[in-house]
Amino acid sequence: MMGEKYMDGLQKINKGLLTAKVEEKLMDYILREPIEVGEKIPNEFTLAEMFGVGRGTVREAVKSLASKGVLEVRRGLGTFVISTSTLEQDPLGLANVLDDQYELALQLFEVRLMFEPEIAALASVKATEEEKEELVRLCDAVEEVFLKGKEHLKLDIEFHTHIAKCSKNKVTEVLMPVIYSAVYAFTGVASNKLKDETVSTHRAITDSILNGDSIGARNAMIMHLNYNRQMILELEKEREKKNVKNQRNHQNRTRLEEMDYQEELDIKRKPSKKKSRNKQKKASTGKEYTIIAYCFVGIFLALIGYLVYFNVELRDEYANSPYNSKRQGTYQERVTKGKILASDGDILASTETDANGTEFRMYPYENVFAHVVGYSDKGTSGLEQVMNSQLLTSHANVAEQVQKEFQNQKNVGDNVCTTLNTKLQQTAYDALGDRKGAVVVMEPDTGKILAMVSKPDFNPNTISDDWDQINADANSSILVNRATQGQDPPGSTFKIITALAYWRQNNTFDNFSFDCVGEVENGGYTIHCYHNSVHGHEDFASAFAHSCNSAFAQIGVDLNRSEYVETVKGLLFNTQLPIDLPYRKCNFDLEANSADALTMQTAIGQGDTLVSPMYMAMLTSAVANGGNLMTPYLVEKIESYTGTTVKSYTPKIYKKLMTTQEASKLTELMTGVVESGTGSALSGRGYTAAGKTGTAEHGDASSTTPHAWFVGFSNVEDPDIVVSVIAEESGSGSEVAVPIAQKIFDAYYNN
Question: Does the global pTM surpass 0.70?
Answer without folding.
Answer: no
